[in-house]
Amino acid sequence: MNIIAKFTRVENSAPAKTNMLPVLIVSLATFIVFFQGLMVAPLLPMLSDYFGTTVRHVSFIEPSYLLGYGLFTLVYAPLSDRIGRFKVIVISLLLFTVLTAATAMVHSINQMILLRLLTGIGAAGVAPTTISWISDTYPYERRGHALGIFFGCMAGGTAIGSSVGALFSSLIGWRSLFVYVAAAGFAIMIMIILLRNRLFDTSSMAISARENILVSFRTILSMKRARWGYSYVLFNGMFHSGIFAWLGYFFYKNYGLNEMQIGLALLGYGIPGLLLGPFLGKLADRYGRSKIIPVGIFISSLAVLLLSRNPSVAASCLLVTILSLGFDLTHPLFAAIITTFSTNKGAATGLFAFFLFLGYGLGSLVLSLIVNSGLEKAFQLYGISALIAGAGAMFVFRKET
Asked: Coil, helix or strand for 183?
């Protein structure tokens, strides 16, 4: 019997909501987390000048945040199975708010790297717990639509954070930017608290607190299908994070753009997900993830290989948007697939977020380590690896619906 069919029967006892407004409200927390997480990418040259160090040194603020985030998703998402989704999201948002505000007061790049690590650890509960909440609330046949909205907010945070963040930084300074983002995170936390009874089912827990989470992890990873799925989540995270972390420097080095111009050039990254996220989710629900995932990886590969050729600035901006489309055609679909790995949704989504953000951190770290060979050559290596992964995805995901 198909594993998805088995899993769907288990879910039938859960409420099958169709109203997507709650998804949008809860996903605002993910929006602000990703806004803050990606707003620093275009600021590398400016922060390098401010702290009197190299761009390569400053670039470690990205992997430190992402690695801290990825590691602690293994703690938060399973914890939400035991104490509830609402409590974990609010606690994580509170930590995010406090640590983001604290980053505005650093006096050295090493202090910033440390605060970014701690902020990643604090914020790690938001996104994976929201995915778990979506899988609690929406049936599989509508989950693509709900996850499309969620990843649209994630993409929107990425796009607006990297563009508006750079714009605001040039107008009000990077310290004030962190303060305002912390205030926005606090406002979203208060809204979720006030709407708690309308958003969260507080009458039951997903699993028994007696269940050993390490056993759940081992059970999930014992399945070949799960191992392949998480491997692609890891790779795709490495690919997109590595490229995006250096796009700001790419536009600075090749076209001489300033912080504001870099922000505008990166605006396209996230626009497809922000505008088309729900549509792309419905597309996957209708036509199947086996067809769309390889297409998304191939699109991403093509965009990066063309960027490595240093085209015109207008063409590069368009390729950034196409690269983002590749992300939107893969990661929301991976998220839907992993929710079928286990009825212990916190464990399954915790592993998903762990491999995703481990990939994010490793991707930017690896590219930072190999960039001395030339940014264009590093982009080519990433593009070729994605081309190979896309070919493999045609086989790995051929049975996914």
From this structure: helix
